[in-house]
Amino acid sequence: MKHPARYGWPAFLVAAGVAIGSFLLRGYFQPEADVPEASVLSQMDFEASGLTVIRYDEQGTPGFELTAPLAERFRAEDALALLQADFRLADRDAQGAWLGRADRVEVSTDTAPLQMTGEVKLARENENLTLRAPTVWLDPQARRAWGEDTVVLERTGSVVNAQQFEADLEQSAVQLSGRVSGSFRPKTR
Fold first, then answer.
1. CA distance 144 to 138
2. Stated pTM of the model
3. What secondary structure does DSSP assign to 24-69, as a single string?
4. Chain-centre distance of CA 16, in angstroms?
5. For residue 50, what are the CA distances in angstroms to 6, 22, 25, 54, 77?
6. Which pLDDT value is given to residue 64?
7. What's the CATH number where 98 sits?
8. pLDDT tens-digit profile of 152-181?
9. Residue 154 region, left (φ>0) first, then alpha (ψ -120 to 50), else beta?
10. Do residues 135 and 162 touch, judged by C-beta distance below 8 A?
11. The total number of structural domains that make up the chain
12. What residue numbers bound the domain in which 119 lies?
C-alpha cells in the first residue's frame, strides 16, 4: 500500500471536496420539519358541513355557540364564513340567552367581532323583543352588538325603524339613532 503522501495534491483536493460537499448538502437530505396544522389550514380553501364553534367563558361553561350547516374558507378572504348560521349567546344573569340567525357569519380571529350579513335576526329568550337588520356586528366577549344599516325593532304592538343601533346585550338595552320612526298599536281588550 502506498503512503498517502505519494498521491499528492489531487487526492487532497478530492478529500477536501467530499468534506465540503457533504457539509453543504447535509441540510438538503434532512427530513422535513413537521408543519403545524394551524398553518396548513390557513393556507387551504375548504368547505365544512355541520360546523359548531363554541367559545367558553372564564368558568368553563359555553358562553357563545355558533352552529351552521355549511362553512367555507377562502385564502383571499382570510375569514371563515358560516352559512345559514344560528347562534346563542349565554346570559350570565340567567334572564335568558340571546338567540339569533344570519345568512352569513364571518369569523376572522378569536377576538374580533363577528360580522353577520343577510337577514340577521337577534332576539332574547323569555322576551318578545326582536331585532332585524341586514348587517350586524357582534362582539360575544364584550356582549354588545351594533349595526349601521336599517334596523327594525319589533315588540308586541310596536315596530320601530332606525338607521343605526347599538345594543348592550348584558343590560338588554338597545340605543337607536338616525331617522328613528315607529308605529304603535294600543292594546285592546
1. 6
2. 0.65
3. HHTTTTSPPPPPPHHHHHHT--EEEEEEEEEEE-TTSSEEEEEEEE
4. 57
5. 77, 52, 48, 13, 21
6. 77
7. 2.60.450.10
8. 888 888 888 888 888 887 777 788 888 877
9. beta
10. no
11. 1
12. 44-184
